[in-house]
């Protein structure tokens, strides 16, 4: 079956074998247009056609199909580095931390000359109980500062880091304003929870 797909002022001819579903049509259009997903209608601005329905239920050969909704492919920033298992890291052990205000904890990791290093080779990954700062290819070596169990939970989404001339500052967003960060690393306390 041949259809003419309308999208962004363009018409795309598309041919599909008989017996295909709307899902097959949407997948084919997603591939052609490089979208994560595509939704279609029989009319411009019309109602979305459900994916499990047969194409021939709605369309005849040489009919028009309208793309009414698309979702972009989400691309992650990827460092072009050797395979992770091949990397060797030197642990950074010097740091300071303080509660910046009732919502934030700041961690400062001193690192001489880091401000001149390629920012694309510095990353920090946050999780609700941990974070890992990685510095790649600084004078031929890789460095890492990691806290695998934080004293209290953080909200990873707003957490961030900044590269200054002689240190890296990491800002951790507290989950609870009332959390007491007497230590950066999780420590047991008398009567405290595990």
From TrEMBL:
It comes from the Eukaryota. One of its GO terms (cellular component) is nucleus. PROSITE patterns: CS. Coiled coil: none annotated. Residues 90-185 form the CS domain. Pfam families: CS. GO terms for molecular function: S100 protein binding; tubulin binding; ubiquitin protein ligase binding. This is CS domain-containing protein. It comes from Stentor coeruleus. The lineage of its organism: Eukaryota, Sar, Alveolata, Ciliophora, Postciliodesmatophora.
């Amino acid at each position: 079956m041949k259809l003419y797909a309308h999208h962004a002022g363009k018409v795309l001819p598309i041919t599909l074998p008989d017996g295909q579903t709307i899902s097959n049509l949407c997948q084919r259009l997603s591939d052609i247009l490089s979208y994560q997903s595509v939704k279609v209608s029989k009319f411009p601005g019309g109602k979305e056609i459900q994916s499990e329905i047969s194409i021939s239920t709605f369309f005849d050969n040489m009919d028009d199909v309208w793309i009414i909704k698309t979702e972009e492919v989400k691309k992650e920033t990827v460092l072009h580095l050797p395979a992770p298992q091949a990397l060797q890291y030197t642990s950074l052990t010097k740091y300071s931390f303080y509660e910046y205000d009732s919502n934030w904890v700041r961690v400062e990791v001193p690192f001489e000359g880091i401000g001149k290093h390629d920012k694309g080779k510095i990353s920090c990954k946050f999780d609700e109980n941990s974070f890992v700062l990685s510095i790649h290819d600084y004078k031929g070596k890789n460095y890492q500062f990691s806290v695998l169990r934080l004293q209290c939970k953080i909200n990873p989404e707003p957490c961030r880091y900044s590269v200054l001339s002689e240190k890296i500052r990491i800002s951790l967003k507290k989950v609870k304003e009332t959390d007491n960060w007497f230590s950066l690393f999780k420590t047991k306390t008398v009567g405290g929870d595990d």
